[in-house]
Specification:
6-stranded mixed β-sheet; flat
Length: 1370
Amino acid sequence: VSGLNELTVETPEARDGGSFVDWVTFTMNFPDLLLPGDRILIRAPPGFQMSFLLPGFELVVLCYGFRWLPTIWPPPLPPDVDPDTIPQHLIPIRPPQRPPVPEGVPTWASGSSVLEIQPTNLSSELQWAADGAWVMRMPINFTAAILSDFEQFLLLIESNASNFSNLTANDYVVPNAVELMQRIGLPSWAVPAAARSQIQTQGNETVNASTEYLVLRSHCLDMFAQDAAGNYMNDDFNWSKVPLTADTQVWYDFHSYVFLNGSVVSSDAENFNYTNYTIEFNISQNVTEATNFSDFGFYVFEEIHLCFRAMFEATRFEIDGTAAEEFCLSNCTISNRTQTECIVDCLFTPIARSQVRCTALPAGGLPDGAEDAAQQLLPKPDCAAQVQAFYDGAGMEVNDSNGTNDTNSSNSSMGAPTCRCGRPTEVQTAVLWRSKFNLTAEVEAYRREYEAAVRLRSLDASPLQAEAMCSDNQVEMHIQSTDLHPDPQFVNSTVTFRFEMRFINPRRPPLDFENNWIMLHSRPSDSATGSTGNEDILSSDAVQSWSVRSKLRYITINRLTEVLRPTDPAIIHFEFVTVNPADSMEVQAAFPIGFDFTNVYLNSIGTDDGNKPPNVGRRLLWQGFTSGIELRDGYRDTCELRVNFDKNEYVRFELGGILIPWTGGQALFNMHTCIGGFRQDEIELCCHEGEPPENPAFVFKVPYRLQGLRGVLMNQWMQQAFLYPIAASMKTRLGEEHLVSFTFMLASEIVLPPRASVIRVIVRAPVGYGIQLFEEEMDVRDSAFLIEDPTVQIGDGLRMRSIAFSLDFRDSDATQIQLNLPGLTLMRTDIEYRIMFMAVTPGFNSMRIPGDLWVIEITDDYKQLMNQVSEQKGSLTDFELLSKVNFSCEATRAPPEVVIVLEVTLYELGEAFEYPNRVDVYAPAGYKFLLSCFAPGERQRLQFNFVSCRERWTLFQGNYLSGAILMAADAGVLPSDMPMKIRLQALTPALTPAMNDFFVVTHQRQGDAAWGLTPSSFPVSNMQVTNRYTGVAGLGIHTAIPLAWGGNIHIAGPLLYQIRCPISLVLLAPDNFHMPNCTHEDSVLNGCFGLPIVGDPNPNPALPLCDPLHEILLTWELPWWAQADQDGDGDDGDSDFGMWALQSGDEFLWSLTIQVPFNTPTPRSSNVFRVRVMDANKVAIDGNLWLPGQEVRTIPRVQDFKIWFTTPVPATMMTVAIHFTFNLTLPRGEEGNTPLRVIEIEAPQGMELKVRRPADVRRLRRNDFVAVTEWNWTDIFPQQLWFGLDTEQNVSGTFHYAFPALTPTKMPVDNLWQVKLCTDSPFCTTNLLTIPIPGFFFGQDPDEPLSDEAQEMLQGSWALRTSLPSWSLL
């Protein structure tokens, strides 16, 4: 519960509706201490306008008027009242007595603003003033000063000043240093001194640069000079007679005086001995023990005496002719005889003169460290003549002793004219002082002290001075520390704060319960409570506001129901105040044309509960309806009522069943009442906004209807239709995120009203939708012009341009969004607009309302604030949404191009009332359901659910899919049957489809009911096959299913390859492996059917060439002698062969002889090996139809690969020799960027090449050998050996080398040696060619013996090395 604060509001004179109220006084008092961070909110009744929008680059909200008033402090206690006798809380709180406000500038600068001259800011306000100080910091940056002067010159040219109208920038003359100093305000007599300062401060090779300040200051010398004893010397010298050639001098000294009780006791405060004086006070403490002598009446006063001396020679006549004649006449008259020569000499003989005039300056009257740089005697000011005339007329005389004015005249009470240094005895002079002290810092310190003192006095008057921020009908004040008086006692509950405001009364009187001024005092909640960002209301108050005086006939005609279809009837509310009684009334809808009252009815029932307001005027709190109203007739745009109205009666009733026009505009009504057939009250064409002026009515507006409104709902697949062509063709579903797009045109132009700041688009969704409130997923576009869009996948790649918008998060939620269109002031009728956003569809159909609508409104912030109907509106029937099908599709294994069984499990087919009479299952592209698609036994198992399953092709956006169409029995598919498993037969494709999605679509008699998909379902599982080849192919196979005797393996290479029969070598196989038969002739082989054969003299150029030997068929036939061992029942019996030729999981590695074409087959799909496993009936049961072949290398070209070896024994040393021939010379200059430099020999896994010294590797050919310069090895890579080639010789001849090897304890599975032709070692980053060579087994002998030549070189008689290895890896 908050506290009660106190708010008072002055009642203004202007109380008419919509009138401007000028300066109303408010007071407020709070029970809590005000602290920084507090917020004060003052809310006027609804309709009050406290602010207005100031147009500009940005719209600024300003108060109509707000200002703080001084606080009325209570009177002080009477002098005879002792404060100690009064309770503390009763002592009046008043600001303390403050010392005088300090000067804003130092004493030496008083009289004018102190300006630190910046060379880049040369303006007239910087010119020296005779009554103040002018400051310049040295040295001056002449370059910057000249640039600034040039800018001033250009400004004068642009201003077309009379003296500059014919000049251009080329006419500018760069000033010299003297001219520049004079232009920035320095008088000519001070320029030399300033120049000397410039030279001294800017530094040179021997003197460092420094900073110095020049202060030009005028001084009024109003004191006569003093003699040695301190007496003033009367001097009636006329200083205007001082010649310009006079020598001048300025000096000053400091004086300090000690006052005791107002009397001077010493003129030397520094050396004054306080102990010599007796203090006449009743105190026991001796003055010598005091620390603060001011407590005893002592006061020290300091001042500066500044004197100016002029030294020159002049005759007495030049100084004062009249006085000179009198002087010379009296001095040259001897014995009553006048001496003429004496008089001439006396008058005209030059006399050396030294005239001195002084002034007393207060302490600080000169800058710290001031030194005289230059001085000049100034002429008398223009006002001096007026001062002299005043003195002459008043009979005043000047006291020569102290320079003060005394008079015996009766006019002595009259003040002399105010004139600076204009009295007769005053002399005006100017001095250019220089100082090394930082005068800028001194001036800044004075300024800060002055501003702080002024601010404190301002807070003494108004302790609270927070800035007011107005908005609509409220004023907010966020209190900061600088807004509060520093003393908390002046901002607590004892102080009442006062301020004034201006505002505008509401156009209509607020309701009684709303007609209050409300004030809230809040404070941010403690962050420890976890309510960050919240506020606690400390106190509040509500004050009854004045009654706004509206005129009679308060007319309100409002449409209560929203009309979204042309056939939707509307209910219209009427209310008004009568003037005269009436027994009948007629209501006619005049505009827009199209109102229809044919089916009108009275929608309100009269309220006879005793609460009907008396006939004394309007009572807004009464929400009943007027009784005694009956409907007489309704036709076209008019209806007649039978009524019983009193005079001044507040009437309220509602009419329903009215069809409003489908064209928009301000609704206008003609209404009149009658009694006895005579008209009583009436109003015509009521009413446009603001009419009648004396009592504006409120009449609803009929919204304009959006033209050509259409909407699109796009799910994630529709948004990427090119990537998901099948899913994109399906209908939208429940419970998914969609892109919603509405396109429309306007029925009339929308112009942003002056009182509005932004146009708004409102979109309301049907029940159940959830709009995503993410600006980055929204867009607003128009067709003013088109722009390129790389994401557009159809058409010309163009789309509507996007326009700026912002989402109003405050008024947006999951059911509606409000989009602001900043910067858009006009919406035209000749272009289309589009709104795009993301929304989640309802989760179930049960959440939806049949026939629900999407609603789009165009309005602005002002209309919303005033609760006005949107200017334009449109509606669209909700989109069709299907339910989701939840299912899975699995297969044990899916070999390529094999008939498999698919297990489809249906978990959910939508809501209970949507269960179908047909279920369609569609497989990915490449699959084909069998004509009768049930797996064996499924028809009988599902006979009560489905009557049939037939295969049918269906077209989806140009893509044919094979589908299994399952027709349901009557009530065959029900929710109680879920989950339901269905086994279907289909033929797999050769490869996994790019879009590997299965679809299920359900149908009812009314159409589609639901659909679903399983994205990225099981892939086509190829059997494990590897192929490596150059001259001899190595083929590795892993069987996933067993192969019975009589089974086959079909191997097909690219069309131009030749695969030779039989298997040349079995490198890996089970112990009981039997060699299959190999043939090129079999009916299952395609051969080259229809294709031209290699060697055909006239091949068809449109068809690829084919070699009939590119495929073979391997058949495992059970030997005839083993057939007798098989039992009659098919069991293995005691036969060593068993019933399976190949077991599941067996691994094989065979070597086949192949012939590689000269070029790599193209395209890539032609360079593919295919392997199929077929049963005895030659039906495919497994395979791998995508084994990409290697690139055929034309350079280098090698052949005749052989391997020789000594008898291999486990874990023993043996010798291995590798032999191959370059059958094409490789010229070194034609290799390009990949020259052959290294031949790498790599042994199978587990076998190690045991080379320990260079002699362990032996070349086995004397002539025509490959130019090898070195061989290298390392223990880090024990399976590899590198042979470096001579890069200067062409690569040709035969490579035949032998080397030692250590066998493993068990031969590896991948028993292949590899020869790599590389450009580098040891990692062969650029591999030109890799050649696999089948290895050997323990106890095996080589196929061919070594030649005699090789045998001799191996045994050592011809063991030669071309060179020692240059390096080896350790």
